[in-house]
Every structure is written in structure tokens, then in C-alpha cells.
Amino acid sequence: MDPIFRLPPDSPLAMAVSEKWALVPLRIPAGWHVIHNTLDVRLLPDGRIEANDSEDLYWARTATPPWATAGLGGPPSREINVDAGWYGGHGFRVVVLDPDWDHQRASHTTPDLEEFVATLERWMWLITQRGRFPEP
């Protein structure tokens, strides 16, 4: 399976893509530090969208709260990681790690680019804005 997709022309994601390779515009909520992002896509001449096929597309971790770096005390912080990539034959995969690969909290695999982006954004929002993990 190749990471090539046909999206509805009125899709916000489809409208953001051009012929040149560029990062997918992600809505990253406050509280995240993006370590690695190569979630690149481009528009093919036939109207389909091609995505980067790396297993290492995206990695972010929860940012250290300001009170922790300022030495002000406050509640303890946890390092939570979100890792995402393309796995040929399966599709995109998003994994929540608490804090590492030995402690996976949730995982989702989909062959659909829009569902992948929506899951990535929703899970990051849920973790930092609601303090909850996605359902495994």
C-alpha cells in the first residue's frame, strides 16, 4: 500500500496541499513540544495527495510546565509522548507513550490520511487540555 490518497475537493486538508512537498498544517494545542515533524504531503498531477512514507513522521512530548523550570514547586509533571508514522501495508499509526515504548497507553492505525490527522490532533488536545488519555 502506497501513501497516496484521494480527498474530497472541499476537504480543509486537500485545500491546504500544493504541488510542492510541504508540512501538513496541524493544530497542535498548547502544552506540546514537537521534537520531529516530517508529515509532508504534495498534490499529484491527477489530483491525488501523496504523503511521506516514513515510519518516523511525527514525535511530540508534553512540554515541561513553567513552574517546574522556574523551581516554583507545583504539581508534578509527566512526560507523555505521541509518535506517528506510515507503516506500509497497514497505514498510518498514532501511539501514545507514557513515557516510553514499554508503556503504550493508546494506539490507532488507519489507511485514511484525514482520519490520521484528526486522531493525532484530537489525542494531543485530549491529553493536554483535558488531562485524559484516549481510549486504547
Structure description:
- The protein is built from 3 helices and 9 strands.
- It is α+β, with helices and mostly antiparallel strands.
- The strands form 2 sheets. Strands 3-6-7-8-9 form a 5-stranded antiparallel sheet, with helices on one face. It has a 4-stranded antiparallel sheet with strand order 1-5-4-2, with no helix packed on it.
- A hairpin with a 6-residue loop joins strand 8 and strand 9 (104-110).
- The mean pLDDT is 90.
What amount of the residues lies in strands? Answer: 25-35%
Query: Tally of extended strands?
Result: 9
Please bin the fraction of helical residues: 10-25%
Radius of gyration: 16 Å
Order of helices and strands: EHEEEEEHEEEH
- Overall, the morphology is globular
Number of helices: 3
- For the largest sheet, list the strands in their spatial order: 3-6-7-8-9
Q: How confident is the prediction overall: mean pLDDT?
A: 90
Specify the structural class: alpha+beta
Largest sheet: 5 strands, antiparallel
